[in-house]
Amino acid sequence: MTINVAVVGAGGRMGRQIIDGILANKGMVLCAALEKLEHPKNGEKITRDVSFQDVFLGLNAGFKAADVVIDFTNPETSLEIIELASEMRRPVVTGTTGFTEFQLEEIKESSNTIAIVQSYNFSIGVNLLLRTIRDYASILNEDFDIDIVESHHRLKKDAPSGTAIKMAGAAAEGRGRRLDDLVVYNGPRNLHTKYVKLRGKY
Fold it and tell me: Of 103, 118, 133, which residue is a domain's last?
């Protein structure tokens, strides 16, 4: 049995890595590779049967052929993807970052209709780290500030990253508080560095 996979955001760095993984896996078949209309890879062949295709032209056909949809785009596009996937009863895996709390609630509501895996980071190590941060933050009470400093390659679009925000959220959870009540976002030292601080009580 093979799993047919549609990839949305297929021309990005993560999209290409996902496609490479699918093509290397004998249990998976790439059935659609979707990108925005102006993307330079549109029309370029990936396999004999699949070329990069404009996301809004290819969604219906791509989703019909898919057993699962993998999405690495932006919050607005992801919500449209999830809405269509819900209508067509296709499960979604999304690694898109930058969702607002309201958008995350919309995704949670859609998960009542279809299976959705939503994560800012799929690394086992990072998810173990999140658990460790939550535990440490419950021990290091609000006498302590918590600083997260991150640097990225120059093509990184969102700062702070979803992973940094997730780390801050884990720390806030460890303290039994809402992230928005504690967090301070500081400006970057340069274009690719961002600071996130969770305030203590002083």
Answer: 118
The pLDDT value given to residue 114: 97
Residues contacting 41, CB < 8 A, separation 6+? 10, 11, 35, 52
Whole-angstrom distance, CA of residue 45 vs CA of residue 51: 4
**Nearest-angstrom CA–CA distance, 35 and 77:** 11
More confident residue, 93 or 167: 93
Q: Are residues 76 and 104 in the same domain?
A: yes
The token pair that represents 123 in the structure block: 């690394």
Nearest partner of 98 among 126, 71, 124, judged by Cα:
71
In the 8-state DSSP scheme, what is residue 45? B
Residue 114's domain is classified under what CATH number?
3.40.50.720
Size of the chain in residues: 202
CA 86 vs. chain centroid, Å, equals 18
Q: What is the pTM of this model?
A: 0.73
| Secondary structure class of 107 (helix, strand, coil) | helix
Q: Name the active-site residue from 36, 41, 152, 192.
A: 152
Which listed residue (39, 45, 153, 156) is catalytic? 156
C-beta atoms surrounding 44 within 10 Å: 13
Catalytic residue at 156?
Answer: yes
Answer for the pair 179, 172: CB distance below 8 angstroms, yes or no. yes
Answer for the pair 97, 86: CB distance below 8 angstroms, yes or no. Answer: no
